[in-house]
Amino acid sequence: MLLICSYIADLIFGDPEWLPHPVRGIGKLINFGEKVLWKRENKYRQRFKGFILAIMVIFITTISTCLFLTILQKINPVLGKFFWVYIGYTTISIKDLRIKAKEIYFSLKEDLLNKARKNLSKIVGRDTEDLNKEEVIKASIESIAENTNDGIIAPLFYLTIGGPILAITYKAINTLDSMLGYKNEKYINFGWASARIDDIANYIPARISGFLISLSSFILGKGFKDSFLTMLKQAKLHPSVNSGYPEASMAGSLKIKLAGPCYYEGKLFNKPYLGEDKKDIEESLIIEALNVSFVSSLIMLISGVIIRWLI
Length: 311
What we know:
By secondary structure, this protein is mainly α. The protein has helices at 2-13, 22-37, 43-75, 77-90, 94-109, 113-120, 133-180, 192-219, 225-234, 244-254, 284-310; strands at 257-264, 267-275.
């Protein structure tokens, strides 16, 4: 019931700015640590300091959550359960992803390409200023696929096997990667440890996400074979050890081609294509991708409930 309540709470509340959110606190902690530790030094000193920052953020996040949960449970078991649900809910991002993706969709429907580009920049790290309509749609779907893992399946996976403590530990790792795990001049060494730890944390969930997207594709009448085979054949082409699985699976589900060349901070990155162009690229595909993502989350929730019940 605690897992179900966390899931429902996210569907109801999402991520309102007025609500205290531990992930925002984690972000502030990372910013503070970066200001203290980052300097223009040699490769190994930067990697060492980045490793220290990553370990400290993960340690502080995990221990503080554990202490709060233990204290509240001793004060009142109901408070402990409420805190369990609250932390669990803040690690999941179903509603927030839908809101941001739909903002892009409606902007495109109204032929407001510049607005769509600005909305897209809220959920992707690439340059969006010069993207055409088709590129905006593809980038949105890629982000939905990747965030299906990072913001939904992986948190639910860790919430299932380790409760809110392990789930918030995962969010600390994921936030470190999203803030420091860039391959630019500033972060390629300082963020190296954050990126590698995130690769390890997402290794199993990313592959689960890819499979669940294929299964959701079947449930929604899009077929299983294209999605699953595209994932098996092409996921490893992606430069990320994990992101290729949900992205390739989503590409096969929607029967389109994703990834390819894109720009980050003005620098061209030639990513390989995933999937095949079997359908025209239209903004409605954003909604289709969101539906696949949502069904995947439901399957993961049901699986998590069964696992926790059996345990």
